[in-house]
Amino acid sequence: MEFDDQADLDTSQVDDRRGMPGGRLAVGGGAAGIVALLVALFFGVGPDQLGLGGDSGTSATSADSDQVSEDCRTGREANAREDCRIVAVINSVQTYWKKELPARGTAYVPARTVLFTGRYSSACGPATSEVGPFYCPGDQKVYLDLGFFDDLRTKFGASGGPFAQAYVVAHEYGHHVQDLLGTTRSVGNDRSGADSASVKLELQADCYAGVWAYQATRTPQPSTGRPLLTKVTDADINDGLDAAAAVGDDRIQSEFQGKVTPETWTHGSSSQRKQWFTVGYTSGDPARCTTFAKR
Predict the structure, then answer these.
(1) Is the confidence at residue 65, as pLDDT, over 70?
(2) Which of 252, 186, 284 is nearest to 40 (CA)?
(3) pTM for the full model?
(4) CA dist., res. 36 & res. 41, Å (int)
(5) What angle do CA 26, 32, 38 make, to 5 degrees?
(6) What domain range is 253 assigned to?
């Protein structure tokens, strides 16, 4: 994937809180506690939904380290640095949805991403490196520890690559879109099981990530009239699909608890996650992300 070298990046969409002091998070011990976090929190569910909302950790009002504001100014930096690349992906994703949602009768409200290391607070409870990336409807922010991308490769066997990172970011912003559309409220207490509303919500966010992947090189930035993301290759898409498969409930459960229990799924199987990302990418149409349709 490549960005327009001359494009300006909007770092106001990112709160850079990396390097701030952290704390500890008390969760269930042993393998069961680890699997509960991995399966229930991977890519979307806020900590409050697991009863982990206490001991919120570092205050969200702490001083901004502002590293990305200083270092991530143009697409040239996005092509060279991981943190700047994340800024560029966020800009691209939000430019697309800002154009798309009003055409479907809903105003798009921008969401900020908080970059942190180790631990940080959110309106949904503590964000930690163990929890992984998630979107918090309570404050309409995405929380991301960049160290997660190393874990995605080393612990979960994904091939990695810049577009795998882009997929993760686009998935989280898919949750923001669902929040704006009111889809998130449909989950209610139906939070686990292969056919649960939670799984359908996650698969739809995967589909929305695929839609963005298709539209990104076709969506001009207002400041330049050109797309910020100028090139997405087949290899990039394969990296995104591989990342989606790596965090399927069945694959995570098989690896970390030695058996697959569909009745506890919250995000869908590896094949489902790949399938719905592909639906979004091949259609480029969010209306095709019909994971909630009755079958």
Answers:
(1) no
(2) 252
(3) 0.86
(4) 8
(5) 75
(6) 2-288
